[in-house]
Design brief:
heterodimer, A: Rossmann fold, 2 domains, 13 helices, globular, B: alpha/beta, Pyruvate-ferredoxin Oxidoreductase, domain 3, 7-stranded mixed sheet, 23 strands, disordered N terminus
Chain lengths: 329, 637
Amino acid sequence: MTLPVTQCLIKLHEAHHNLEDYQGGVPRWCTGCGDNSILAAVQRLCRDENLAPERTVFVSGIGCSSRFPHYMKTYGFHGIHGRAFPIAQGVKMARPDLEVFVNTGDGDCCSIGTAHWIHALRYNTNLTVILHDNHVYGLTKKQASPTSPRGLKSNTTPRGSTMEAMNPLTVSLGVTNASFIAQAVDWIPELLFDVIQKAYHHRGFSFVRVIQRCPEFLPKMFEPWLHDPGRTLLLSHPNGLTISPELSRTYTNQIEHDPSNLDRAREIASSEDPIPVGILYHNPAVPCYDDLRAVSPMRTSEQIRAGLESELDKVTVWPDDDAPARRVA
Amino acid sequence: MTEVATLTPDPVRAPGLPAKLRDAETLSEHIVEVISDSGEGAQRCGQSLGAIAARTGNGIWTTEIIPAEIQPPARSVAGASGIRIRIGTKKVTNGGDETDLVVAFNEQVLIGRVRAGELKPGAQILLESMWREHRDPKIVASYVETVDSLKKAGFRVYEVPLERECHKLVADPRKGKNMFVLGMLCNLYSLDPRLGHEQVALTFGKKDPKVIKVNQGLLEAGYAWAEQNLDFKYRIPAVRSTEPQIVVNGNTALALGVLASGMDICAMYPITPATSVSHYLSDVFERVGGIVHQAEDEIAACAFAIGASYAGKCAVTVTSGPGYSLKQEGIGLAVMAEIPLVVVNVQRGGPSTGQPTKVEQGDLLTAIYGSHGDAPKVVLAVSGIEDCFYSMITARKIAETFNTVVVVLSDASLSTAQQPFPRPQFDADWLAPPLDQTPVPDRAKPYDWDPVTGMIHRFVPGQPNGMHTLTGLAHDRGSKVAYDPEINEEGLRNRSLKIAALQKTLRTPPVFGDPEGDLLIVGWGSTKGAIEEAVEKMRAEGLKVSSLHLTFIQPMPSGIREILQRFRQVVTIEANWADDLEDELIDQDNRRYAALAMMLRSRFLVDIDCWTQTRGQPIKPSEIVRFARAKLATPTA
């Protein structure tokens, strides 16, 4: 590929970043928390994609996972519980030039922020979203979350939770305009990175659910899956993930799944065991809200003046009696 | 059809008036009402009449009468839909007292207005007469009985065959009656029918030219019918303004203000009576590069606006009471993180769903104290249609200068009221400065609280070297989460200081009337016109009454204490709840005061009384006069 001289010069001046450029404060998550794996994957993504830290924004809600922006050396918005989606949409709509990520948890996204989650899928704003799903409320010290398995004993369900867990994948795949739905697990970092990278490259609302461990409150929850790789189902496809030979030696339970097949995606997503990992659904053709309705970057004061004057003309009473007749005509 | 231009010359300027016109009774003002079933176009008729009168040079104020349902049952007392137009020689600042002349499309909608005491004794009633010949004897009986009792009560009833006359021109007279009535009213108020023609063309501008022609025909027919059949006629002399005026309602003025302020984004969720702001914006905003985002709920609308503002484009969210309650957590976040945000609350009756289409000033304290913790913000109230326009420019500017939340309170009566005001002259200074994307100096902090003013230089995404994570948690100057007692207090102190810094820039509001006297009436919001009209009337009678109207309520400008001290008694007049000392259980120890009275009492330690009304109707000047006279007659302790 050849580049014009000016572009070459620009390229020369473009900063190249290393991992430290994205590393903010020392994470205060518990040792062994899945959030750490996600942070590592995302920092690697930023470096590999050479994202300008000043043009990158991580938006989060409230919860353990929503601490995420504090540990990035980019712009961050640690907002309020459940409202990360509309805040991120506002950021993206006002500033399409920014790279906007959302970090949310199972309480933040699937409970208090559910309305926003459903509608965010439908708006299909160009955001990369990571649902840190540890199946429990951590920051408030162990209460059942919507994704907690039935029977979970917690501080609010001492005799075991009574309802079946919500499945965020099937919910997402049921929403009109869903355009990118994927799943990863914190204990396979290689695929976690691959999935997040695919999500980043999708133009639209890329929704990645990461099943992660909470060593403090649910230490043994995923042990059966860790001990038996056969209970993890890897989804591969030329338009999805490519599984490395090394990984294939351990994770032999694999199927080829075409991410354009929505019905099949819903079928696979329904399975809790084995846990599917990979790109469930991808449709690059769904229009993005921010493309359909973005604020014009070329908005000038002259344009605003002209718009205002033409509106005022319609409702003006002129001192000269004949003027309105002329204006109406 | 007679050529319309020859029907009558301009009543104000033409020297050779026809005989009947010369007999027109000259009035300084009149209040006319058009009421119908929902969907019969009474509001369109009245808005057009108001616009024609305004273009003639009259002062006008229109007040819509809106039923709560979209399709209430036909011919029902509760279903009355319509509009009241107060037309005057001078500038009209409020809806006034009771109605002088009403056009009613059926007797049932009229009954509601009579029962509510909205008609003057002896008012003229022009009533559709077709019900007299209706095939349902019950309807005939109801009609006859109503007409008789109205006549007995002293009203002057004129039965008008509206549909029969319209049927001569259109197949479905139900849809054309309103323009026939407009023609009648143009005749009765000696308004130039040419202006009527133009107004019809404007009103139906988006439709087929045939539709305009048909409606102009109905207008002419109404005009001619009134000329031939009615034995009275009025003339309200007009003083044509020397400068261009615009005629819009409060919500349209707010929308135009958003456009003029240079804000890019309005995020909203439909709610009465605020929604029409976004209707108008949705139509015009995107043509100049802005967007109206209809969010999935009120909370999302607020959060979306906060996101946009954070990213450097100050945004506005427009709502009413219930939506305002839902936005509280978001407002607190914007206060805590010091993100500029403009929130418009077009108040309606509350609490809960309350009275969606009716006026109330019940949200003042929520606006000031809303959101948990100490969440200082700026609260200003618009008091007229012109205010609605300029408030958006002011609010955007304050929000961005002080990195704070600005709440603008309007209300249901202003939302649909129309009043002409001088056409705004665009000023590029109204707009926001361009987005700052320059690198942040080394060691600069996102919360570099100024020790005197508490103000900060906010960093906006895109600015190199400014990266930080904004948070709703307590934070230090670097935006780092901090739990130290000193840091928490430092943040609270600085966020509060900013409000004081703004306060230092505010001017003392002027006293209407003498600067001292026996009674000072203090008001805020949409009651301004009615209060000042009442004060003017009482002063003409020699009473020592003045008034003071507040636009900025949080912070409150300096100089108010001194004003209050120069009056023997001070009372607020507000459209919100206050306990009545006449009630058996109510005394000075447990009385709940009206919102502004409470604010003033606590701030100035002055024993301020209050008089309020929560009937869902704009407060009338005559009611204020009645109260104030009684108040002056009562000896003070």
